[in-house]
Design goal:
Distance between the termini: 35 Å
Mean pLDDT: 95
Strand order of the largest sheet: 4-5-6-8-7
Low-confidence stretches: none
Largest sheet: 5 strands, mixed, barrel
Radius of gyration: 15 Å
CATH topology of the largest domain: OB fold (Dihydrolipoamide Acetyltransferase, E2P)
Order of helices and strands: HEEEEEEEE
Number of domains: 2
Strand content: 35-45%
CATH class of the largest domain: Mainly Beta
Shape: globular
Length: 131
């Protein structure tokens, strides 16, 4: 069984989006600031009125690691993990799939996809963007 994320009041919209093949980012309804990960209050203006926007699902590798140990249940090693600069201006950590470790590099363009685990969970995964 896959390790499941914690879903709470601040992140439900995100996980509902992944089930709909959408990458959603929290947006402050007061000042318009985008943020990820989500939280209860806007870090820019302090407002509690928040919504979301659907991101384009594209970005650039800012940094990355190749996870070789320890093992993770239901995952084959190595696992490629990247900090991705989304085109909308926020950063997100994500798993990069369908690439050999030596192909992953800073500046590489990525696009999101969704790995459906079951009827209640889809996880965002990142692949090399099509040229």
């Amino acid at each position: 069984m896959a390790v499941r994320p914690m879903v709470g009041l601040d992140s439900t919209y995100f996980w509902e989006g992944t089930l709909a093949d959408q990458l959603r980012l929290q947006r402050c309804n007061n000042c318009g600031a985008l943020r990820h990960p989500p939280g209860p209050a806007c870090p820019d203006c302090g407002a509690l009125d928040r919504g979301f926007v659907v991101a384009a699902g594209t970005g650039t590798v800012f940094s990355f690691v190749v996870h070789r140990h320890p093992p993770i249940p239901d995952k084959e090693l190595p696992i490629l993990l990247a900090l991705i600069d989304l085109d909308e201006g926020v950063r997100m950590v994500g798993e990069v799939v369908d690439l050999a470790p030596e192909e992953l590099r800073i500046g590489l363009r990525l696009q999101v996809g969704f790995n459906r685990i079951d009827d209640e969970l889809a996880l965002p995964v990142w692949r090399k963007a099509e040229a």
